[in-house]
Amino acid sequence: MRLNRRKFLVTSAAASTVLGAPAILRAQPSEYVVAASLPLTGPFATAGQLVAPALRMFEALTNQDGGIGGVPIRVTAEDSGYIPANALANYQRALATEENLVMYFGDSTGFMKLVAPELRGENARLMGSTSFASELADPASNPYQYLPGPSYEDQFDILLNQIKDEGGSTVAFIHSNTEFGRDPLAHGRATAEELGLRIVLEEATREQGADIPTHVTQLAQSGADYAILQGYVTGVWPQLIGGARQFGLPTRFMGTFWGMENAIADRVTDEAGPILDGYSGVMPYKYFYDPERGPAYERFAAFQKEAFAGSPLENYMPTWGLQALFSLQIGLEALRRVADKGLELTADNAAEALAELQDWDTGGFFGKPVSMVDNKIGTGRVYQYSAETKLFSPTSDWFTV
Amino acid sequence: MITGNLKSSYAADEQVLDNRWKRGFLLACLAGLAAIAAFGNNYVILIACQMGIMLIAVTGVNVVIGYTGLMSLGHAAFVAIGAYAVVIFHNTAGAWLPDSVATVVAIPVAVAVSALIGVIVGLPSLRVKGLYLAVATLSANFIVIFLIEQDVFAPWTGGMNGINTPAPNLLGWEMDTRREQFVLIAALAVLSLLAAQNLFRTRVGRAFIAIRDRDYSAEILGISLYRYKLMSFAISAAYCGLAGALFAYFYARILPEQFELDLSLMLVAAIIVGGMGRTMGPVFGVIVIVMVPEVITVLFGAIAGGGAELAQIRAPIQEIAFGALIVGFLLFEPFGITHITDRALRALNRWPFARG
Amino acid sequence: MGQILQFAINGLMSGAIYALIAVGLVSVFKATRVVNFAHGYLIMFGAYFYFTFAVLVPQAAWAPEWLQSWRPEWMLAMRADLPMFSPMAAVLDWLANLPRIVLGLIGALVCNALLGLLIERVLMRPLMGQSVFAMIMLTVGLISILSGAAQLIWTSDAEFVPSLAPNTPIRFELFGSMIFLFGADLANMVIALLIFGGIVLMVRYTKSGIAIRATAEDQSTAYSMGISVPRVFSRAWVLASTTGAVAGAILATRNGISPSLGLFGFSVLAIVLMGGLDSYLGVFVAAMVVGVLEALTQWQFGGEWAGIVPYVAVLLVILVRPYGLFGSKEIERI
Predict the structure, then answer these.
(1) Domain ranges of chain C
(2) Which residues in chain B have their CB less than 8 angstroms from residue A52's CB?
(3) What pLDDT, on the 0 to 100 scale, is given for residue B216?
(4) Residues A93-98: what's their mean pLDDT?
(5) Is residue B152 part of a domain?
(6) Measured between beta carbons, which residues in chain C are less than 8 angstroms from residue A221?
(7) Contact call for residues A258 and A390 (beta carbons, < 8 A)
(8) Is there a single domain that holds both residue A307 and residue A334?
(9) How far apart (Å, rounded) are the C-alpha atoms in residues B119 and B232?
(10) Which CATH fold would you assign to the domain C2-320?
């Protein structure tokens, strides 16, 4: 190959780009990307579709506050259909195509467990999610994933203790046949044994479209005093309770976070009558309609009135949206602290900053300042639904596990 | 214009790649793969690896459906068996072997186990044909996945929650980045395609083709249906097992639900779109089946710009596109893309004398 | 002992629904020699159409009030004194829903029949005479199209739909233990059995039924006898889609509307093959047997094992009787 002037210029231009590249990269990025996988289709589509606008609100409010260290953020969401492999593909695509991806929001317990072994080195990012699975709160082996509340195992402990206090003796575990549904069962069994409660039924159902009559007859045959429902979001739990009430079963039902949404309970009460009266469960946050809501909720309310007028989100943010917002808030806080210290926004630095979230005032999500211990925030309350007021009201103080 | 494919020695006649166009094509493909490995960005490598793994599996499906004519809708089960065999091997016997050797032993073990199970699943093919065989293999798929998910086997398979997989380690070369794994996958994919093409020049391959065309005639001519049908299932299961092994090495964790009916139907769709009974059929089929969802995703990304409203119709559109591809090809081009390329090459060959 | 009976009765009820789904499959096969792998998704569409006409249409702004909930004075008076879940209250609630149930059923039947006709004309006609593989794969492709289309039109949501019959809880003692039944389930079973019986009688005794059987036996002879074979095909598909619509409505009231209704199609496919592709008696027996086996498996081993029962059953039966329990042997002409 003959070296003439054109070839020389081209080669030196190429060489200088390569050599100069690190210098270019170290300059401030124009934006940080937060990517999310949401179940916009599939069994939990209703929840996913309500969370998507909440993410937009998060982006707008964060950028109003100056983003992360002065750099604005961009939030993108993709659909996963609640299939972990699809969510994994979304994550890999985001990693491969987005520069400056700083945080990811996962959509399911299954996905979080599937992606955990991949979060090494280059492929690691701070990762929040919809899941409260206890396995994820393990900073030793899984430092990048965290829970925005008490784990399902903790929630089961609280409920089982409540059952013991109220004098119950037999419990049924009715759960969906997903990772989400199965997560706390082993621990729940152990706790029940410790407390002297007898588990008379462990029933696996589909997470959507379950065969209600069969499951209700199983419950009836087992004769349980209490039943804990785990692994449902919008469906199956109201129908199970309705079916049990139709048979006049005296069983009292309790649920965990994803089954504590007021909008669903209201819709069921409207359509089928006051069957959910007395239903209780663990919810880590204040409800949006809480009379003592803090500045964060007020800000959301103002934004929603403007931006989401005419949609169901105009005056109300469901618990699913609050969970997503808080989960992202935790990650944002960690990233901001890293940026304030002047460090690079790597996943390792962010994971370290997570552990430093102690006695943090969240602006109204909780009734008191919370701390991140072992990658989870173990604070919450027990609420009970009243069909008259159509609201969930707290029946306990703020506990911390 | 090829005027003749004339040979002057027996050795030349027996070559797999017997003219310079075929050799040139293979070299071009190898060069293309090398270029992808060297210069492709992460996204391209990701897609290419997925295509490579699927290519090996679809080649296997081509053997049993395209060349032997036995309808099997359950081949995802063999992919699952290959994947889990690798993981179980690494966790049990492989723990005694040094790391560098474990992978080299695990892959043939996985292939052998899949072939064995393939023989078992193929047993119904001796009794039933056509539709009944399709449903029998479908049931086998459900049953295998069901067994993997059971808690009884959870200590080995991880049950429904899946299990972590090791990274491949080829005699000391620890392949923990996608790029390195791509080299392994691409090499194995090319080799398996060449092996499949060679298979159909041998007696075994001709027996398969005879069974496809008219099985009782084949039997009359002395081809033992029992032996060759089971061999066909075994070989295709072996290919799928190899694909499963690579699948396990590629993803850090595997879930049993990744190997359900959807994967089986995707494999069969790929072979329909690509062309059954042809070597290049799996290649075209895999390219179309993997690229179409990605193209739709990119299009939606460009139109919607990350907003979630449009994102929620992306998954249904991908499904409809998948179904429309199958239906469209069956109605209008039942011999697949290889038929289209055949016609194109023929026209090219005869140009400018005959058009079309 | 009583527990077994409870589950056996549950099994019979689900078996009746499987039989209803299967009758469509068998009719289409008898007439056209095509097995519709996408039948489960046709049923899902029927369920969604029922949902549209029974829930969405009455909720629309232009629909009259009484469509949503028909509560005349006398009903309100009767209802007021009754406790929440008494049988009479359930009957009255059902009466209040009756207008929209009827609208829902009519709408589902009509729309699903149109869908069946469309599929037959556009997709199945061109494939007449081609290989078994081509027809199976076409219906497999149809699965994806129907599934995606349903998600596009109605986003997935588990909604309540009004059940077809009053949902009174029924309790009685039998051999010393309590049996719990939902009245709606019993009514659904009766409806399913009646429709199944009606179809079998229709195929036996009416002119169109005889046309179907003639086409099933020998298409060219049927042509020469003056039977319009393409019309027989359309009729068979319409029959399948309308029974599918009723089955879909029943499944929707039992399990709630969701895209997973389509998965019933695969287990019913296994049942149909187990019973014999062209035998109504065979599929009836197979459906009942599988229904009871599934319920008993659920009782003993839990819900997950119940899902695998149809597939194990079909494998075992096929290995012993390759054409199903009562199916007719396929004669291959050399």
Answers:
(1) 2-320
(2) 308-309, 311-312
(3) 87
(4) 85
(5) yes
(6) 3, 6, 178, 180
(7) no
(8) yes
(9) 9
(10) ABC transporter involved in vitamin B12 uptake, BtuC (1.10.3470)
- Return the C-alpha torsion angle B196, B197, B202, B207, nearest 10: 70
Looking at residue B14, its pLDDT comes to 79
Q: Give C293-324 pLDDT, tens digit per residue.
A: 998 888 888 777 888 899 999 888 888 888 88
Name the residue among C132, C308, C318 with its Cβ closest to that of B130.
C132
List the single residue in B42, B258, B312 with the smallest CB-CB distance to A41: B312
Q: Tell me which chain A residue has its CA closest to the CA of residue B254.
A: A114
Q: Mind listing the pLDDT tens digit for each residue in A131-164?
A: 898 888 888 888 899 999 899 999 999 899 889 8
Task: Count how many domains chain A has.
Answer: 2
Question: pLDDT tens across B21-35, in order?
Answer: 888 999 999 999 999
Q: Nearest CA of chain B to the CA of C147: how many Å?
A: 7
Contact B43 A93 (CB under 8 A): yes
Q: Taking 90 as the threshold, does the pLDDT of residue B284 lie above it?
A: yes
Out of B258, B311, B314, closest to residue A85 by CB: B258
Contacts of A95 in chain B (CB under 8 A): 42
Both A209 and A279 in one domain: the answer is: yes
Cβ contacts of B279-282, under 8 Å, gap ≥ 24: B279/B193, B279/B196, B279/B197, B279/B200, B280/B338, B280/B341, B281/B62, B281/B66, B281/B336, B281/B337, B281/B338, B282/B55, B282/B58, B282/B59, B282/B61, B282/B62, B282/B193
**3-class state of residue A32 by DSSP:** strand
8 Å CB contact between B141 and B264 = yes
Domain that holds residue B177: 19-257
Whether the predicted pLDDT of B356 surpasses 70: no
From the CA of C331, how many Å to the nearest CA of chain A?
41
Residue A15 confidence class, pLDDT cut points 50, 70, 90: low
- B195 is written with which tokens? 């092996």
Per-residue model confidence as pLDDT tens digits over A386-396: 888 888 888 88
Count up the domains in chain B and report the number.
1
A144 shares its domain with A159: no
pLDDT at residue A23 greater than cutoff 50 = no
Residue-number span of the structural domain to which A91 is assigned: 32-150+294-370
**What tens digit of pLDDT does each residue of A364-379 get?**
888 888 888 888 888 8
Q: Which two tokens stand for residue C40?
A: 């489960």
Note whether B251 contacts A: Cβ–Cβ < 8 A: yes
Please report, for the domain that includes residue A91, its CATH number: 3.40.50.2300
Contact with chain C for residue A203, Cβ under 8 A: yes
Q: How close C209 comes to chain A (CA, Å)? A: 34
